[in-house]
Design goal:
CATH class: Alpha Beta
Shape: globular
Number of domains: 1
Strand order of the largest sheet: 1-2-3-4-5-6-10-7
Largest sheet: 8 strands, mixed
Number of strands: 10
CATH superfamily: Gcn5-related N-acetyltransferase (GNAT)
Radius of gyration: 16 Å
Structural class: alpha+beta
Length: about 220
């Protein structure tokens, strides 16, 4: 039986950001972000004018999945007094048995260009390796999402493919949910690319992330 204690009451901190479990208090901010073409530029299949009740249902489902160790939803806020909403991150899918998770990030457009992606990677992916015991983290993004692709490659997270990930793990992960429905992790990534980092590769990536974050802090 997997230890699910680390999935509950998550509170993580970076130099500028805090990360906490998503809750229904985030409905208004999530609704605005998911309905904003700037935030969803590289997720057009998910862009529409969302209703708050739809987002509330999504959050409730994610909370239930998190209790089972199948996903993690985190809200990002600034650490200052105002606690500004920055975006959302976490793991859309986790397979505890295969020790693999799919990390994702959506930032409020008002917080683009601040280097927050590096901080979210460092804190949340680090948590997954150090506390959840994952062996592999994958990031699936659109071919045209140059900011995310650059962020990954610049810190040593390499473009990969699902076959390589599965062979490295020696097991086949469970199903994941895509915009087109539920499929196995061997589905075709049309118009998307996959990046992967293993627990053994993570220390080197973590060091590069640290340098990126320190450089950003120096120019604040």
């Amino acid at each position: 039986m997997a230890d699910l204690s680390h999935f509950q009451d998550i509170k993580l901190y970076g130099p500028r950001l805090s990360f906490r479990n998503t809750s229904l208090e985030d409905v208004r901010n999530f609704t605005a972000t998911n309905s904003d073409p700037r935030a969803m530029q590289h997720l057009p299949m998910m862009l529409k004018q969302w209703k708050e009740e739809e987002i509330a249902q999504q959050i409730t489902s994610r909370v239930e999945e998190q209790k089972l160790g199948k996903a993690i939803g985190l809200t990002i806020e600034t650490k200052d007094f105002d606690r500004q909403f920055v975006g959302k991150t976490g793991f859309r899918q986790i397979d505890i048995g295969a020790k693999i998770g799919e990390w994702g990030l959506i930032l409020d457009p008002n917080h683009h260009g601040k280097g927050y992606a590096y901080e979210a990677m460092a804190v949340v992916i680090g948590f997954a390796f150090e506390k959840l015991g994952l062996k592999q983290v994958i990031i699936i993004t659109a071919e045209g999402n140059l900011p995310m692709r650059t962020a990954c490659s610049s810190v040593g997270i390499k473009e990969s493919n699902l076959k390589e990930v599965i062979e490295a793990l020696g097991t086949v992960p469970e199903e994941v949910t895509t915009a087109g429905g539920t499929e196995t992790l061997q589905f075709q990534l049309e118009g998307q690319v996959l990046y992967a980092v293993s627990s053994t590769e993570w220390p080197a990536v973590q060091e590069q992330l640290k340098k990126k974050i320190e450089k950003r802090l120096a120019f604040q």
